[in-house]
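QA checklist item 7 of 12: single-chain prediction sanity check.
[x] sequence parsed
[x] length recorded as 308
[x] structure emitted
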Amino acid sequence: MITALLASVAPIALLIALGWELRRRKVLSDPFWAQAERLSYYILLPALFVHGLATAKLDGLPIKAMVATLVCSTTIVALLVLATRRTAGVGNPAFTSIFQGGIRFNNYVGISAAAGLLGAQGVALAAVANAAIIPTVNVLCVLVFARYGNIGQLSLKNVLKQLALNPLVVASVLGIALKATDFPLPGVFEQVLKSLGQASLPLGLLCVGAALDFGAARSWMRPTIFASIFKFALMPLVTVLACHLFALSGPAATAAIIFQALPTASSSYIMARQLGGDAPLMAGIIAVQTVVAGISLPASVLLFTSWI
């Protein structure tokens, strides 16, 4: 189990390190990274979400119980992060990074870990987890950015407009709608979406690495620890309680805990950059959580699955 989990985390850390080295050595000019971030946010990540959700194989799975468990636990932890905002001792843009670090998840690591531990069934359960958590966290994060990001406080009308136009939210809704209606993606179109989605992982992680500023590492520590307590301790604990509440057990419960114990996603950095968050802090949280996940993810899965 530990080997499979470590194998899913290691490539993420290496890609972040490569991005940092490329930026340090000036292999690519600075304007490239800003354009790469926009490409990821508006094209590659939406393609990933649409394809992954529309083509998920969900037959014979405890979908309702698993979705209820994941949505409930994610929402509760999000509310806890908001309730302790003043305790974090940071400004509003930095708080958006803490919020994302506390609730977002790296679905690449999750799919790899679930497949490594649970085989083909794990891949199907990972699809359910993605369908439940992706739209939930994206809606929650857009709302938090609307309140605390540098784009300023927005009216209800403008918040709804932000949600309706956010490419990640739109992609999540579209993918779920395609799956719910059993509308098949045309073969060529599906391959294009799949290829674009696959490109989002390496490019997004390279951008995260390029944004790292180790000279500011000391300022990361408090917010990173704050976010990681929610992500690696409270999130899986609340998920265990939700599993009992919704009678979720067996492999489905294991998959739920895996996904709720993951490090935050590289898309967090892209969203922070585009919606007025603290992007350098977000890059630091992603990097630290990815490294820490090498220990915390196996520990969380071993501990919390024993409580189901």
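[x] summary fact logged: The radius of gyration is 18 Å.
[ ] second reviewer sign-off
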